[in-house]
Design the sequence.
């Protein structure tokens, strides 16, 4: 039981570190964006630590893409994957009518 407890604690610690690193990445990208929307990863999505949408103005697009590429390479060296997708329609940034 003690071994299982230590394994669970190690997994929680690792997850917390990954989430902290993901928040730092989001914070780093935010100044290049008009808006950022983050959602908690879906329950059961154990490997996903950041689920975010970034609304990037055209004039910041190249800088954003370059920064993501840099961070993607850095994260890959430590065994993590940054999997950007898009561009997508800006539906994440539309507020529902009252």
Sequence:
């Amino acid at each position: 039981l003690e071994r299982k407890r230590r394994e669970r604690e190690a997994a929680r610690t690792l997850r917390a570190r990954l989430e902290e690193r993901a928040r730092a990445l989001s914070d780093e990208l935010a100044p290049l964006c008009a808006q950022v929307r983050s959602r908690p990863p879906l329950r059961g999505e154990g490997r996903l630590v950041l689920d975010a949408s970034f609304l990037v103005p055209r004039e910041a697009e190249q800088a954003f893409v370059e920064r993501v590429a840099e961070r993607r390479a850095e994260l890959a060296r430590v065994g993590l994957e940054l999997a950007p997708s898009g561009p997508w329609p800006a539906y994440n940034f539309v507020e529902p009518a009252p």
The helical segments are 2-29, 61-77. DSSP finds two helices and two strands in the chain.
